[in-house]
Amino acid sequence: MIDNNLNFDLADFQACLICAGLSNISYVEKNLKYAKFINVLSTIKLIKECKKKNIFLIYLSSVAVFDGRKSFYKITYSPSPFNNYGKYKLEIEDFITNYYFENYAILRLAKVISCNTPLIRKWRELYKLNKNIQVFEDKFLAPISLDKVFGTLNIILKEKLYGIFHLGGKDEISFYEFALRYFSENDLSIKLVKPVIFNKNKKIYNGKFSSLHNSFT
Q: Would you say residue 213 lies in a domain?
């Protein structure tokens, strides 16, 4: 049975950063009802509680609110998610902008990379097993570090910045190129890294690009 109660008191907090949720896109697609409860309904419940206590709200959103047909999406571009993960992110964005007025910041993120990023963990596990690591050579990312995310959140909190913001890397590269760079920089052999095609049907472009025009220099 799912617990629908808010089991903590927000009275002593001045700001709330919402970063929890289901982020595995494949899992979300296979478990839509549960994913919507976690990523949408439970999040809305928390947002409502924050508003009652006039808490400054920061919501971490995603480049997935766009369809991935272009590079470096600007804030002025209209969202157009092509998967349910992105749709749920946009649903929360719309709720905040219509309900929370001017005491919030929405930070859309490009691909965040750390040693604990699921993609990196998967690559390293395959490497240990001496198995081929298949990486898209025609799908692109503009990665950012956790340190950059933390630094940006600190700026937003200190200055109580209001509105929607984008944060992503300055350079967009293919996942294959990124994998080669990652293994080389970590003194690992690249012999297991193999390029594969993402867009086998040239008419399909959704999800090809995942970069954002940066709001912070």
A: no
In the numeric block, which tokens belong to residue 165?
A: 């913001």
- Distance (Å, rounded) from C-alpha 45 to C-alpha 94? 14
* Phi, psi at 116, each rounded to 5°: -100, 5
Distance between CA atoms of 105 and 163, rounded to whole angstroms? 5
Q: How deeply is 71 buried, as exposed, middle or buried, from its count of CB atoms within 10 A (0-12, 13-18, 19+)?
A: middle
**What pLDDT score does 179 carry?**
97
Task: With respect to residue 207, please indicate whether it lies within any of the assigned structural domains.
Answer: no
- pLDDT, tens only, 204-217: 678 899 999 999 87
In angstroms, the CA 170 to CA 174 distance is 13
Output the CA–CA distances (angstroms, integers) from residue 165 to 24, 67, 116, 161, 200, in the order listed.
23, 18, 25, 9, 33
Segments in 37-188 forming alpha helices (H): 42-52, 84-99, 118-128, 146-159, 175-185
Q: What is the pLDDT of residue 1?
A: 39
What CATH number should be reported for the domain holding residue 157?
3.40.50.720
**What pLDDT does residue 6 have?**
61
In a domain, 215, yes or no: no
Residues lower than pLDDT 50 in the chain: 1-2
Return the amino acid letter for 153. Answer: L
* Within a domain: 201: no
pLDDT at residue 4, as a whole number: 55
